Every structure is written in C-alpha cells, then in structure tokens.
Amino acid sequence: MELAQRITGIKPSVTLAISALAKAMQQDGKDICSFSAGEPDFATPQHITAAAKQALDRGKTKYGAAAGEPQLREAIANKLQRDNGLDYRAANILVTNGGKHSLYNLMVTLIDPGDEVIIPAPFWLSYPEMVKLVDGIPVIVNTDSSTDYKITPEALNAAITPKTKLFILNSPSNPSGVVYTRAELAALAKVIVDRDIMVVSDEIYEKIIYDGVEQVSIGALGADIFERTIVSNGFAKAYSMTGWRVGYLAAPLAVIQAASALQGHSTSNVCTFAQYGAIAALEGSQECVETMRQAFAQRRQVVLDRLCDVPGLSCAKPDGAFYVFVNISSTNINSLDFCQQLLEQQLVATIPGQPFGADDHIRISYATDLVTIEKGLDRLVAFVRAHI
Ligand code: GLU
C-alpha cells in the first residue's frame, strides 16, 4: 500500500517507544529501572479525580463545545492572567487533547508549505516532526554548553529568513531543563518583534522549577511581543494528569478561531468529564503542585550529586523540568547504541539524545521514585565504568 508522502518521512516518537518497551519488559518480570518518559509517578491529586467523577455522575458525558467547556476556558484565561501576566480572555483559549495536540493544531493553523520554523537544539523530539507533517521546514539552530544550551538573540536573528514564520521556545526546556531569564527572553522578544515573526512558547514545565529561578512568559514582556505570542500548556506535568489528555493553546483571536474550526472537524471537544477535572486543578488548592515540585527537587539533587563524580559523564545543572541531559561523548558511543546497550546489559531505560538533536547526550527523567533512582544510577555508573 502506498502511504501519503507526508507520513513516510515521520519518525515514531522515541520517548513513547522506549517508555512502552520499558513497561513491557517490567510486565515480563524484568527488574527495569526506567528513566524514560517524562511522566510524574504521582497519582493525580484526589480533588481533581473527585471532580471528574462528579462530572460523570452529573451527566457530563455528552458532546461539548469544540473549543472547550466555557468554564474551563474562563479558568485558563484567569490562570494566565494571575500566574503569567498574560491578558487573555476565555475567547483566546482553545482546550486541546494535551499539550502535544495544541502544538500540532497550531502548526496546521499557522504553517503553509515551505514556511520555516526555527527550533533550537536540543529540542523536544516532536517539534520537527509536527512541522514536517504540515510541509513546513524545521530550521534547527544548535546550541551547546557554552551558552547553557540556550539560543542567543544573535543566533535567532541569523536564522531568520523571509520564509520564517515561527520560532519555538520551550522554557523550562525538555530535554535540557534550562530556564531562560527575563533578560534573555527580552532580548529574544526584541528580535521576534523587529523581524516580525511569531513565537510559540511551550510552557508545559512552568511549575517545575528549582532554586528560586523565575519563570517568565515571553508574551508578558510587552504589547508588541504579546500579539506575536502563542502559549501552549497543559495539565499533564504540573498536576500529574498525563493520561487525561487536557492541554490548551492561548493566542490572538484569529488563531484560536481558526484552530477551533480545525478541531471542530478533527477531534471535536476534549473528553467532557476530563475537562471538569482540569477546572478543579486550576481552581483548587495549588499545594499538590508544590508538594510534587519539592519531591522533584530532592530527586534532582540525588541525580546530580551522583552523576557529577562519574568520569566520562558530564551534565549541566537543570533549573527546571524533570530531566538531566547527560553528555556521554567521552564514552565514544553514540546515544542510540548507548541507550540500547544500557537497557540490554543493565536493565536501565533512558532516552537517546539523537532524536532531540544531540547524539552525544542521553536524557534521564527523574520523575520516578528515589529507590529506582538510586538503583538505576548504580547500574548506569557500572555501565559507564565498563566503557571508558
Ligand atoms: N513529553 C514527555 C517526554 O518527553 C512524554 C512523552 C512524549 O510525549 O514525548 O518524555
């Protein structure tokens, strides 16, 4: 059978594939330590599940408005005002099937064939594939430890051509964990405004930050940048709601109206009762978010303390998210082989840096319990010692 060209160039998601493999190996009785998916190991907080159960009992089981339940759109707009200083109304919000879906909807809405989309590397591996799915051109700008894995305003400016439509910003970043400062964002915003391009700010890890760093939304830095900004976010990481599939896009009206029309012909509304859980997440106590953040902070310290003395490995201290992006170049093994051998020989699942645009790195997700972290790191260290 001949498949459409647009799909034949698309690679399967390595994060999902390795996570599924690790789970399958565990089910087969293997003692796997999985540092693969970026998926918090906590249960969804009880007041959120209770709200969804109540919604089921109240008959919230029917089709809803394609753009989302009005009460949830309102709650998201209020959250963006309150937490991020972004002046959105409910009409500027589209509720989507997770953050991934919000970004994909945006690509379909904004990108014409041949439009260029600037993506700093290392990047979350789904960004370039989404751009390719709509016949856009991903323009990868490499970064390294010399700029803390951040794109500089000079590099952004140099990558812009008359075909550039969009820049993808992800802070805190998956996989590097870097968080851009207010001053760095202001400098990037100036380039975006001067060169008249759009930016999508993927803020899915906004609540998972450490050591008192400040999380700033680029769109809050002035009216000119606000009108060129689209925000993508969701409930998965902050509220441990990965399987619920509730995310959102916040954008100028024209973008939301067009993306809502798209959603009306593709997925329709997000699962109605799941949206009531999301309302409870935003309107209830935020203590659960802080409790999980503190647990991540403790785990991050354990991972960093353990890895920093290992000859052959190096890693920058991440300010956010729940990943450590480890440089493995001294082992002289590429990241795909490294991760495969580590899984086969030591039963430790990690994600290769190659699909993130950095083949000399691996990604360790510490969104797992401390016992697994300690055991898995012992095995990782044994593996590295045997290979350098
Ligand atoms: N975003 C998470 C990760 O990078 C979940 C898996 C995925 O959707 O890629 O691990």
Number of separate structural domains: 2
Known CATH architecture of the largest domain:
3-Layer(aba) Sandwich
Number of helices: 14
Rounded to the nearest angstrom, the radius of gyration is 21 Å
Strand order of the largest sheet: 2-8-7-6-5-3-4
Strand content: 5-15%
Bound molecules: glutamic acid
Based on Cα principal axes, name the global outline: globular
Main sheet makeup: 7 strands, mixed
> What is the number of beta strands?
13
Which structural class fits the helix and strand makeup?
Answer: alpha/beta
User: Strand-and-helix sequence, N→C?
Assistant: HHEHHEHEHEHEHEHEEHHHEEHEEEH
**CATH homologous superfamily of the largest domain - what is it?**
Type I PLP-dependent aspartate aminotransferase-like (Major domain)
Low-confidence stretches: none
CATH fold descriptor of the largest domain: Aspartate Aminotransferase, domain 2
Whole-number mean pLDDT: 96
